[in-house]
Every structure is written in structure tokens, then in C-alpha cells.
UniProtKB/TrEMBL annotation, chains A, B:
Keywords: Calcium, Hydrolase. This is Glycoside hydrolase family 97 protein. Its cofactor is Ca(2+). Coiled coil: none annotated. Gene3D superfamilies: 2.70.98.10, Aldolase class I (3.20.20.70). Monomer. Pfam families: GH97_C, GH97_N, Glyco_hydro_97. Residues 308-505 form the Glycosyl-hydrolase 97 catalytic domain. Residues 600-700 form the Glycosyl-hydrolase 97 C-terminal oligomerisation domain. Residues 23-290 form the Glycosyl-hydrolase 97 N-terminal domain. SUPFAM superfamilies: (Trans)glycosidases.
Length: 705, 705
């Protein structure tokens, strides 16, 4: 990609010191205005198509143990503008190539009294604004401690927000849709129980935050390139409707240890009057550094199955035995232990999944509960909880690898840390080497429960550094990482495409923990997925869990057609078919779509979108002329109207439509669906009903002459 | 050693449940009595030669988040006694073989209400008592959190104590001698400044604590085998003169996360009416597990010199340049930086030390400040502060190794962590491998400043585990460890003899930081050294630092003869000759003793001892018939009277006596000494004057026929 940077157009011009400065987006739709207020406080505002999106909002940082903060008494001593335009190709993605075009304004501020400089760098794209704080090398600002970042996002009114409560330890909440003024009143109700949670304010929310204004503007607030900095929440002043950054602190209340030269992550504001453009935005990726991995040939999108849903649903167990009150790795002898008989990760069961994967064209098999330690893995603040290399007696690592290999299937490793991150880092090299020695190329890591490292939570700077450390070390071993319960992604997968997946939101597992809202999946692409792909683990066909797990009264709030659509609407280079082989075998015609659907794309067209209500997207499978469409629908039944103009002119295609049955409903009748085939061209139109919590999926295959 | 365990005499007898139980030491001098108080609180008392040493003292643990603690409501459900006698050979030590003889009493207590059992195991030796809490595998006590250990040591009166203030982050205080009742009033004055310190109570003191009673009993309180537990302090109830254990907490106030089966470290009480027996006690080692390293052939005692005192004294610097406001490893380019000209670890200077070591028979050369990062290594809460493998441009790792090798000298590595322990653990494997690749067999590690890991201090359980992790991992690489600023030793060097040294007390460096009390070295063997050898770094000949480091007004409070004696009185398998070659060259006759003295011994005879006043010890060099004597003296000039009965009958020896000059004084005339030779046999006697802060050293070499 480097050469593109050189060919990019640079035009530097040094201007007079001015206290107000405007920046226009390349397409002219956005205007950002930087203003230095009377007391020397930097501020900015943002307009889109002559509408105010962000009212004048203060910028700055409050420092700890420093006589003076970086909040005011600044003067502008330098102003630089720059235009940039490049096109780059992601290793995997929703599209084959991404245009990175923006106009840039860099304001250098000087605080006379302390003789300290900071730079505020704005990048205005055709779909929104990104800005960050930069701390250049200088005499009087070398090491400093952040008490709080004071970045404001002043709203123009009492917008509708699609939000989850701010929390230092979990992101796995259902989304609440409400006016900004209603957040305070709904905060407690919005906090469903979690194994580890730490909230901080009744008006605190997480990013990426989706908003809609009364006059139809869609606004998304998030951050990009979160590296060596603590994760940002937003706290709302609900008198004035002003959001302010709220960084995640450590036990001492410290929100960041900074050494100059350094910079903050980008603060991002994506805006459009068309919700589909929010979903199509590549601004977050563009604000991250280009790929730092030279050889990316080993990074491959993949569909997988695995020994997972049966533990989540309660049908089987991660642990091997019930004999021990506790486990001491290296001391407890499992070879002599009496198996509980419920252990999911046993050779026979794993082979069943390998056979199923091979028979149906899945590239990988994930197995959880394969390694010693699950008998007491959680809730004991246990330091040495797993060693990541010692399997249970009934899990034959080498044998299963050989078996999988003979069937052309890859095993996917699982590393649950139970929050014991020092222990994980101590074993990381051995664990990754063990994976390579046994033919594993991808790992699903987990951080369930409280962090076992005094004073840390899931999203403070120290932990953000840990997740990054794991991804970069994995890259050294050519290992792909799919991190669960880690900090929410911020587009880092551009720089480290071996980060092929994250959970960092409420995934399918919650359908087995009491269920999620039926419109949850119409919100994830507007929120969590703004930062990168999600390992949502869709594909559940058996919605009544009590049928196979008597003690589980949960119901999956989704129709089968909706589950199929998720493979297209929830973009990820890593997609699981999460249900049991026997459940797929009950519905072979529906399962056909999961077998057919691609996981890597050359084009994506968002056809319909409204947060909380519906999303319809068409994607072209990379390296083919075939398309796949997904539609997910919210609470109300709805007729989706789309056309096929995206198809190649003059070509004929066979479209197989997997739709909700007439009586389908996510609760009362989730398994009612029908499959039909029609012929389509680029002039075809489709009017298709989607049930409540339903949707449809379409495969469009070019007709062979 | 195993076979010795088998030959040891075991006699188990299960007794009736009794609420009072006596245990006698093998020599009958000690009687320990266990009593269950009315409310079911376990307690113990200790008698020595019919004198009470410890009055009835409560035992137990207070638990956190547990409905009931492990303090009372116990009943005795089992009592076991056992006698043990073995002799084992340490890899290195003060003596060639150690007898481990004790009578044991194990009381199993049951807490009816909670149906939980704990065992209190007492081992009564001929020189004192050790006991610990054991938590066997059981249903109702698996994982638990310690709020506080409630172990009491009830004194019989207002004893004289030789103490340093309790602190979670430093052990580097001068000792204060006072009555127990005076501790509270002296606590503040006793706290000299340190780079990292956290005190907790005006009557909190550290172990090993030395005490003397009015009727001449010497009592030492400490712990043995501190593994996976937090370090114990003692807090004094100075109304009742009762010490109680005070464990080191983490940021959350937690003092221990325990998983059964587990046990506490041993709590030790060494007692004698002869101070020399306290110094000769091997109880602390005996309470540790036998050596766990199979092949110990690579573990070798050694005398060394190094590039260290010149930085400590301020003559030169650890850092390479003054050019950078801060360093970013891998980014900052030192090859282009302007050297400050004061960098001590440069090739020419290191070669000077290698030449000096080779010329004078020293086995090793330590070099501090060899690796990038010293420009901003301290006080910035800097995570990635060192990588432990990147030398400064003027330090040629391979070249210097080759040069040293050609002269038969070993280089000693230095790993300063600056308290950034996660960073150290991340680099540990690479760092140790780098050492082996470059011929280094030993590392001096450092933990200066606050621990950079949220909520940890130097001595809590999490950090105790770190130091142990470093020692065990070093053993995998056949690397010897000399850890500075780590938790005070508790005899673990028996189990891991590659832990050849620790600082963990106020070392010679403080003679350059304002000076230490002249009787400091008469206390270290009674306190800090009870747990294991100390890398005190003696051998300073130039006491007036301003002579070579103009800005340093410190004075070394010791005579040259005292400095020589330290090589014998402060036992360590690792002894540094800390001063500059040029200073040794000024006093070649005195330096001769440092060249001659051994570092490993077959016998040790403590000839005279009184804490705070004087220590005289004679040691036989392992594998020879030669002896070395050291005498250190406190504030008052004193005539030491010894005889040579320890010499082999009928043999003649030449004794070279390095003594204080007539006018010698640690302050006014520290460099006045004389050297004389006399002939001695096992019937000889010596009367020798030692100056204030002085002493003498004697080498006794058998005459060749």
C-alpha cells in the first residue's frame, strides 16, 4: 500500500495564527469549524448539508498531579491543512477496495504559562469527522497522567439514541431505544445481569453510539485506533444534551499514562441523512494505520462449526469430571478421575463435528472445554487457572488434528483466560507454539469474569495493551485471533488483519441466557460492527432450548429465516454455524443457504436500513459473480421492497429465496419458513414480507449458459 | 536427599481428642503447649529452659466475604505426633551438611457450624519453633480470601527490639534499637526516605525481628517458605506487648487468595540464651522443601567486581545520553545520539574491570546500565521501560563476553525492571535466552520504585508469586538469580539454590546515600540474613565519596578492617568487591584479604555475638584446611577475645590479621589499619581491639611442611 501513500496528493500550507478555522469535506457536504474560545479553550462544531450536527463543543484533557491541565489558556501557533486520497485493498472485508479520502486540518496549540504544545488533528471525510489529540516531543510535556479526557459532543436536541449502559467490564447488554432525556430513567432497567459488570454513571453509555435526530439525521459516535489508551465511554449532561468523553480508569482512578510523542485514538462522528450510508462507512477503518503484517497469505476468512452451543445451552459441559472440589494444574490427575459423562469436548463428539464440517464444506471446527481446568475455572480469582496446552484425557489433540486434516478441515483452538491475564501472558508463547505444532491457525480467546490482576477492569489502558499484545504476538506465530469479552474493536483489523473477529457485544449466547430483543440484530451493524466484524455465532434453528436441554427455559427470539439472513447482514470473515448437526439435518433446505453463503466480499450494497427496524444488504462473493442478500426485521412485520439493479446488466441469475412463512413469528412460530427459486436480472424487483423478528436470505447464482 | 527421608524415623500415633497438648524439642530444652480455649480458639505457648518465651497466643485467620472466619468454635478431632531426623547437604552454604531434627505435632481442628477443617502443624527444633496453617482438601473450604491472619506472638515483657518499620514497598531502613514500648514514639524517625514506601501502622515492624529479654533470652521472629502467600509483617499491641501477624494486602485490601489444598508459610520463633546460636540456626532452611533442581552443577558461589559503585556514588551514570526528553525502545535511535560522556558501562571501562577481575582472581564482572532505557527509567510509571536485550552503542555484548572469556572471567547480567513486572515477564524468556547465548550464567534483578501493575506493592501475594516465577524460570535456563528490592528471603534458597542472593535490606549503597549506622552490619546477620544470604556488596576502601564524586557528601560509616570482616560475617555465596580498582590498588595489603577469602564453607563457628554490638565468626573454606575470621564492631571500641580451638589439633597455621589501627574510627579515621602475621595452633588465643564501626579479618592458612 505504501506507494499509494506517495502518490497521494499532499498540499501543505502554513497559515497565519487564527482563532477560527473552517474545514470542508471533499464532497462539500460537511463543514467543521474549529474555534478558540475567549479563555483559550479549543472547540469545534460540525455541519452537514447546512444542518448543525455538533454544536460548539469543548476539547481538552484534565491532567492528574499537574499544576495545570490541557483545557484552556491556549493560543494557536500553527495551522496546517492537507488533502489526502488513496485507495487500498483490505485482506478481507465487505468490499474489495476502500477509498480513503479526506481533508485535514492540524491546529497546533501553545499553552503559554506552561510552554506546552498539543496538536488537534481533524480529518473530514465524505461520511464524517475524525479528530485526535497529539502530544509532540517537547521539553515540558513528556510524561503525564490523564485524569479525564474532556472531549464534548454537543447535541442539537433530545435525539433518539440506541444505547447500552456505560460499563468497565461488560458490553453484553441489549440495546435500549429512547430519547436522550430518558436515559437516566431507563439506566437501571437497561443493565441486565452479567458475570462481571461495573457501571459508573446513570447517563453513561458506550460507543459506538447510534443516534437519530428529529429531522432525520443519523449520527454515530465512536473511536478509531484504540491503542495504548483507555477505552472511551460517553457521559451525557442531559440538561444540555452534551456528551462528554469518560475514559475507563484503573483502580487508582487513573485514566491514562502517556509518554510523548503520543496521540489519543480518533474520536469519530459518522453522519448521514440516509441510514444506509452509516452502515457503508469505512471511516473507522480509514483512520487506522495500514496493514503492518507483511505476509498476509495465512489470513483466511472461514465458516466453522463447533462444540460450543451444547455447553452454552446446558446440554453438555466444558468440564470433564465432577469429582474434584478444585483443580490444581499439574497436580490433579484427570487420568484417574471419573468422567461426569457430560463432557462435550470428547473425541467421538468432536469427530461428529469434523465429519459434519467436511460433509458440508465448513473450513473449521471450534472446540471449547478441551483443556484441563474447567472444573473450577470461574469466580475464584484463580491465578493459575489454565495452561492452554494440557487436554483432558478424552480429547486427543494429535489424533483429532490428523483426523480433521484427512477431511480437509482445520481445528480452531480455544483459550479461555477466565480473566487471569498474567497467567495467559506467561503461557502465551507456549500456547501459540502448541497450536502451530498441532496444526491450529486460529484461536478464540475469552475473558469471562473479573480481571485477575489487581485493580484492572476489562477496558482500562493496561488491559487494552494486553489485548493488543495478544494480537501482535499471535501475528508472529501466524495465528488468527477471535477475542471474546475483549475491548470493543475500533478498526484495528486494518492494521492487524489477523484480528479476524471479536465478540465485544451481546452475541447469540444470550439467546440461551434468557433471550435477546428481536430487533437486536437490526442494531448491531449500526453500533458494535462500526468498529469491526463480530463473531455473533448465528444459525440457530431449534429455538425452544427446553427440547434438548430440559433445564433451559430460554427461547431464541428469531425466526429461522432471520438466522439465515445474519450471515449476510452481520458482516464477519469468520462465521459460525452454531447449532447442532442434528438440528441442521432436520431442515436441510434451509441449511443449504448456510452451506452456500460466502464469507468474503468484493461489493456490498445496503438496500434498506433503519436502526432497530430493518437492514437489507446485498453482497457479492469475492472472486465470483454471485450475490447474497440478507434482510433482518424488528418487532413489526414488514414488507421489504428491493430491486436487483446491482446485478450485472444482461446476465440472468437464479435467486433462491429463504423467507419467513406466512404465520412466522420470532416467538410463536419461529420455524415457519419457505424456500423458492425465481429468475432475476438487474431490472428485477422483489416485494417480500418479513415476520416480526424475522427476515429473509437470498442466494443469487449466475445461470450457466 | 530423598533416601534420607526414608531413613528418617516416623512414629505416628493417633491420640484422643484433647484440648491441651504438649510438644518437647529433641533436646528437651523447649516445650510448646497447644491449647484450645473455651470458645474454641486455638492457641499456643512456648517455654525454653523453663522460661516462658511466648505466652498463650491466639491462632487463626479472618476471612473475607465468608459468613464465618477461621478463628474460633473449633474442636480438636485429630492429633498426630512425629519425630524427624535427617542430615542434608546444601549446594552452597555456611556449613557442609545440615541436620534437620524436630518433633512434630499436627492438630486437626473442626469448625462444627461450617464443617470446615484446618490443621495447625508445629515443628519443635532444638533451636526453636515453626508452625503453619494447613487447609486440606474438603467440601466446605476450597477457595477463600484472607482478610487477615490472626497469629499472635505474646511477649513476656517490654523487651529490647532491633527493628525496622513495617512497609509494603521497602525493607531498606536502618535498624532502630529500643524497648517495645518505645516503637510507637520512634516510628516516624525510623522511616528514612525511600523511592517507594508504604507504611501501615505506628507499631508495625518487619521480620525477621530480633528481640532480647531482660533476663538474657534472644528471640527471633520470622517466616519460612514464603510461597504463594503474602509477606508477613508484625503489628504490636504495645499495651499488652502482643505481636500479631499483618499480611501485605493488595489494592483491594485482600491479603490472600487461597485454594485448598494449601498451607501458609511457617511462622518461626528461634530462641536461645546465647546470641551465637541465633546466628548458627538452620531452622529456617530446614523448614523449606528439599532442593527441586536435579542438576545443580551449574550453581557456583562467586566473588565479583563490577560497574556499579561509580553510578551509586554519582561518579558516572547508568544512562548513555542526555539528548532525549524520553526514550521509546525500538524508536529512539541511540546510534545517532550524542553520548553524555559519563556512561559507566562503556567497553573500555568494562574491560578495565575484566582485567582487574582476572588479575585478582574474581570470577565475575557485573555491569549495570548496559541496556537502552536508563535515560527515563524511573518514576514515570513507564510500562515498556527496558527490553533486556538491547545494549547501548558503546557496550559490545559479544565482544566483551569474548574478552572476559579469554581471561577466564564470567559476565554477570543486570535486569532492572523499574517495577514494571508485566514488561519483565513478557521479555523474560528472550532475556534469559539472550544471557545464555552470550555466556551469562547469573543475573542481578532490580525492582526499584513503585510496582507498575495496578494495585500491587512489593510484597503482596501477586508480587511474591512474580519473584518465585522469575527464580523458577531462571532455573529452567540454568541461571542464578540475585534479586534486589524483591521480597525478603525465607530460606527458599534450599529449594531453589539458584537464588544465590537477595538484597531485601539496607545495603552498602546507602553508605553513598547519606550513610548507614556504624552498627548496621552487627544487626543484619540477626535479622535479614536469617532468611538467606544477602548481596550486601562490601569492600569499600575510600570512605570519603567527595574525593571522587564532588557532589556526594556521603561518608561510609565503617573502617577498612570492618569492610574486610564483612566477607566473613555477612555470609553470602555471592560477594562483591564493590569499590574501584584504583582504590584497591591504593591499599594492596588490605585488598589481599578480599582476594584470599572464600565464598563457600564447610564449617562456621560463631565465636562472639551480641546484636547491635559485635559479631565474630570463623569459617572453614570448603575443600581446604584454611579458615577465615571476621569481626565487626558497633559504636564502642571493644577488645575481642577469641581462641582458635576450632583448628585441627597438632597443625600449625599462619594467621594474617587485618586490624583497625590504634586511632581508627568509622568517622574520623576509617582508613587506619594494620596487617600482621602470627603463628597459631588450636591452643592459641587472641585479644584484638576493634574500633568504633571497626573490626578485624583474619586469614588462617595451614603451614606447608
Amino acid at each position: 500500500m505504501k506507494h499509494l501513500l506517495y502518490t497521494a496528493l499532499f498540499c501543505f500550507l502554513v497559515l497565519q495564527s487564527v482563532n477560527s478555522q473552517q474545514l470542508k469535506s471533499p464532497n462539500g457536504k460537511f463543514i467543521m469549524e474549529f474555534t478558540l474560545q475567549k479563555d483559550g479553550t479549543p472547540s469545534y462544531s460540525l455541519n452537514y448539508k447546512d444542518k448543525t450536527v455538533i454544536k460548539p463543543s469543548k476539547l481538552g484533557l484534565e491532567l492528574k498531579d499537574d499544576k495545570k491541565s490541557l483545557l484552556n489558556d491556549f493560543t494557536v501557533i500553527d495551522t496546517k491543512t492537507n488533502s489526502f486520497d488513496e485507495t487500498w485493498k483490505p485482506v478481507w472485508g465487505e468490499v474489495e477496495s476502500i477509498r480513503n479520502q479526506y481533508n485535514e486540518l492540524a491546529i497546533t496549540l501553545n499553552q503559554k504559562e506552561t510552554d506546552r504544545q498539543i496538536i488537534i488533528r481533524f480529518r473530514l471525510f465524505n461520511d464524517g469527522l475524525g479528530f485526535r489529540y497529539e502530544f509532540p516531543t517537547q521539553k515540558n510535556l513528556v510524561y503525564f497522567v490523564i485524569k479525564e479526557e474532556r472531549t464534548q459532543f454537543a447535541m442539537t436536541g433530545d435525539h433518539t439514541a440506541f444505547w447500552i449502559p456505560g460499563d468497565y467490564d461488560t458490553q453484553e447488554y441489549d440495546y435500549t431505544t429512547s430519547k436522550l432525556s430518558e436515559i437516566r430513567g431507563l439506566a437501571e432497567k437497561a443493565k441486565t445481569e452479567n458475570l462481571s459488570q461495573t457501571s459508573f454513571s446513570p447517563t453513561g453509555v458506550q460507543t459506538s453510539l447510534m443516534l437519530k435526530t428529529a429531522d432525520g439525521l443519523y449520527i454515530n459516535l465512536h473511536e478509531a485506533a484504540l491503542i495504548n489508551y483507555s477505552c472511551m465511554h460517553l457521559n451525557l449532561d442531559d440538561k444540555n444534551m452534551v456528551f462528554e468523553s469518560w475514559l475507563t480508569p484503573d483502580e487508582k482512578g487513573v485514566k491514562g499514562y502517556i509518554q510523548a510523542p503520543a496521540h489519543s485514538p480518533w474520536r469519530t462522528i459518522i453522519v448521514s441523512d440516509d441510514a444506509r450510508e452509516i452502515l457503508a462507512s469505512k471511516m473507522t477503518l480509514n483512520l487506522n494505520d495500514p496493514c503492518k503484517i507483511e505476509d498476509t497469505s495465512w489470513i483466511k476468512p472461514i465458516k466453522y462449526v463447533g462444540v460450543w452451543w451444547e455447553m452454552i445451552s446446558g446440554k453438555s459441559s466444558w468440564s470433564y469430571t465432577d469429582e474434584f472440589p478444585s483443580v490444581q494444574l499439574g497436580v490433579t490427575d484427570f487420568s484417574k478421575a471419573k468422567p461426569s459423562g457430560t463432557h462435550g469436548a470428547n473425541n467421538a463428539n468432536v469427530k461428529k463435528y469434523i465429519d459434519f464440517a467436511a460433509a458440508n464444506g465448513f473450513g473449521g471446527v471450534l472446540v471449547e472445554g478441551w483443556n484441563e481446568g474447567w472444573e473450577d475455572w470461574f469466580g475464584h480469582y484463580k491465578d493459575y487457572v489454565f495452561d492452554f496446552v494440557t487436554p483432558y484425557p478424552d480429547f486427543d489433540v494429535k489424533g483429532l488434528h490428523e483426523y480433521a486434516k484427512s477431511k480437509g478441515v482445520k481445528m480452531i483452538m480455544h483459550h479461555e483466560t477466565s480473566g487471569s491475564v498474567r497467567n495467559y501472558e506467561r503461557h502465551m508463547d507456549k500456547a501459540y507454539q502448541f497450536m502451530k505444532d498441532n496444526g491450529y491457525d486460529a484461536v478464540k480467546s475469552g475473558y469471562v469474569g473479573s480481571i485477575i490482576s489487581n485493580g484492572d477492569n476489562h477496558y482500562n489502558q493496561f488491559m487494552v495493551n494486553h489485548y493488543q499484545y495478544a494480537v501482535e504476538k499471535a501475528a508472529e506465530y501466524k495465528i488468527m485471533v477471535n477475542a471474546h469479552e475483549a475491548v470493543r474493536p475500533t478498526g484495528i483489523c486494518r492494521t492487524y488483519p489477523n484480528l479476524i473477529g471479536n465478540e465485544a457485544a451481546r452475541g447469540t449466547e444470550y439467546q440461551a441466557f434468557g433471550g435477546s430483543k428481536p430487533n437486536h440484530v437490526t442494531l448491531l451493524p449500526f453500533t458494535r460492527l462500526i468498529g469491526g466484524p463480530m463473531d455473533y455465532t448465528p444459525g440457530i434453528f431449534e429455538m425452544d432450548l427446553s427440547k434438548f436441554s430440559p433445564n433451559n427455559k430460554s427461547h431464541v427470539n428469531s425466526t429461522i429465516a432471520n438466522q439465515l439472513a445474519l450471515y449476510v447482514t452481520l458482516y464477519s470473515p469468520l462465521q459460525m454455524a452454531a447449532d447442532f448437526p442434528e438440528h441442521y439435518n432436520k431442515f436441510p433446505d434451509a441449511f443449504q443457504f448456510i452451506k452456500d453463503v460466502a464469507v468474503d466480499w468484493s461489493e456490498s450494497n445496503y438496500l434498506e436500513a433503519e436502526p432497530g427496524q430493518y437492514i437489507t444488504v446485498a453482497r457479492k462473493a469475492k472472486g465470483t459473480n454471485n450475490w447474497f442478500i440478507g434482510n433482518v426485521n424488528g418487532y413489526e412485520p414488514r414488507t421489504s421492497n428491493i430491486n436487483f439493479a446491482f446485478l450485472e446488466k444482461g446476465k440472468k441469475y437464479t435467486a433462491t429465496i429463504y423467507a419467513d412463512g406466512k404465520e412466522a413469528n420470532y416467538k410463536t412460530n419461529p420455524q415457519a419458513y419457505n424456500v423458492r427459486k425465481i429468475q432475476v436480472t438487474n431490472t428485477s424487483k422483489l416485494s417480500q414480507l418479513s415476520a416480526a423478528g424475522g427476515g429473509y436470505a437470498i442466494s443469487i447464482i449466475e445461470n450457466k449458459k
